[in-house]
Design brief:
Keywords: Membrane, Transmembrane, Transmembrane helix. This protein is mainly α and about 475 residues long. About 70% of the residues lie in helices and about 0% in strands.
Amino acid sequence: MNPVQASHPDAFLPEASSERVPMLDLLRGMAVLGILVTTIQTFGLTEAQVQQLIRGPHGGTYKLATLVQVLFGNAMPALFTMVFGAGILLFLARPKTAAGMAIPELYIRRQLWLIAFGLINALGFLCTSDLLFFYGIIGVFLFPFRLLSTRALLIAAIITALIYSGKTYWNFREQQQNYEKFQTVEGLEKKQKNLEKKGKKNSKAKKRELTDEQKEAKSAWEGLLNDQKFDPKQNDATIKAMRSDYSTVWNHLLPKIQATQAQYFYRLGLWDLASMLLLGMVLFRRGFFTNQLSTRQYVILAIGGLLTGLTLNGLAAFSHESLLRDFTKYVATNGLPWHDVFRPFAQAFSAMGWASLVLVIYRAGLVLWLWQAIGAVGQMGLTAYLIQSVMGTLFFYGYGFGYFDALPFHQLYTVVAEIWLLQLVFSVVWLRHYRLGPVEWLWESLSYGKWQPMRRHETSPETARALS
């Protein structure tokens, strides 16, 4: 039995079962590997450096960075999230466990442990793009949604996506309002200067000072404007910190990790991820993840999804470049924040398009050995995801090999290829001897409160019950 055929059906849930859904492992593996295409930039470069690549000359590096953004964008994290959403339904559909523990109780325990793994990934491994913490929290809130009809789940997915878009638009409107207030203040200041030049020293206008509200409005806009500018000194300080010891790197990244897991998550990330989780539930019920659609349907979804997703990604990339080049002009001349407002829809279409394309190729029987290896990575999705964090941080950060800011942009993808190769080989070899990945085994053991069997010839209580 090859690794794909021996895969577990649960999206990111390492629970033995009598049923197998190989496509979930395949797509999960594809998503895990694909995530590294975008996260490698956060491991090896500062955010300011990536932005400078976009602002810079339209040479080969710019074209590569834009190509990565347009082709993938957030598609792979979105697909990873969708598969996790499918796994929620799979897990909660099970009967009572052999140990007598109710499935809802076990599910909540697993989600709480997933939160712990997310904290370890972010605060221990220093991964600034962790998803596990979010999955653990949102998964608890989505527990009642398993009872909804497929149509209701789809409506909920669309509503949460629209909430994200609405909040993004609202934030943009606040920026526009800040700019309008700044223009008013700037006009008053210019008027004062003109009066001074004319020598009207006794003019009331000359002696009039800005109110506290006007000073605050001016400061707010200037703060936004400064955030968009490239600061060489700050960038150099970041590089120096990232090349230092673990403690220095930890202290430098902690504010960013906290802002992501708190402020960003509760303002925007919650709605973005919830929409993808709910969409994953819908696609699972429709048979998308279980290979039940016709080849013609997958072809249509591949073409339609990629055309729509890549078009929206292209629009977002062009808009983001305009924002970085001239933030004031971007805010003053646009009615929508095109760089981000359609993100849930762009990543959803892209993810479905890429997944459909892979399933079409898989059905055609092409390079099956590769899909089997990717399926093995997917079966060990949690392990593979955390290994990427460990390998990425150890290779680039100062407490490891210290290659941060040492490689040209294009060479980052040489590192991606090497990590992919290691993960593919490791996953295939490991699953020849063990029923679960090492982190999946730990997660299962912690959830049940006792050590679970790990080798293939050992039978867990759950497997024994399922086969009886």
